[in-house]
Amino acid sequence: MTVEEDAKQKHAGEGAREPGETEGEAPAAGAADSTGEPRAPFDPLAMSGAEAAAIEARDGDDAEHDVSPVAPTQLGAKRWVYAAYFAGGIGIAFLMSKVLDAGWLKLQNYKPVIGDPRDEVIMPLSGLLGAGAAVYYWYRTRARQLAEEVAAEMSKVTWPSRTEVTNGTVVVIVTTLVSTVFFALMDKFWGFITNLVYGGT
To answer: Is 0.85 topped by the overall pTM?
Structure first.
C-alpha cells in the first residue's frame, strides 16, 4: 500500500469531506468519491470534534437568522373573561353605591345627626365591594372555568360582516314599511266594505 492510498483510507475513515464538498454536507450513501470508489454512508459519530463543532456553530447561526420576530402575545378568548370580570366588578360597585346611598338615607331618618350621604365614603366602599366580589368569583375555579368555556364557545361563532349586517337591517326596515302600508290599506278596504254591508256612516 502506498503512502497516498494510506492517506486516502485514513481520510475516509475519519469521515472528512472530499474536495468540492461544502462544510457540514453529508455525503450521499453509495455516491462515489474522487477515486471512483463508493462512499460509506454518512456517520455523524465518525466526525472529528472540530468538524462537529463547526457544523453545530453553523446550524446555530442559521437558526438565529431563521427566527422571525416574536409576535405580541394574544390572550385569545380569555380577554373576554377578563373583560367580563372587570365589567361585573364595576356593575357590582355601581349597584352597591346605590344601595349604600339608599341605606344611608334610611339611617338618616332615624339618626339625623349622621348627615347627608357622603360620596367620599360611599364610592371607595362600593369600589372595594365590587373588586372583592370580582376577586372572590375569580378564585372560585368552577365559576372561572364556566366563564372560560362560554368565551371559548363564543369565539367559535362566525359573526356577520358589516356589509351583511347593513343589508339585513335594510331588508328588515323595508319589509316592515311594506307590511305596515299593506295592512293599513287592508284595514281601510275592509272597513269600507263593512260600512257598505251594515249601512254604517
So the answer is: no
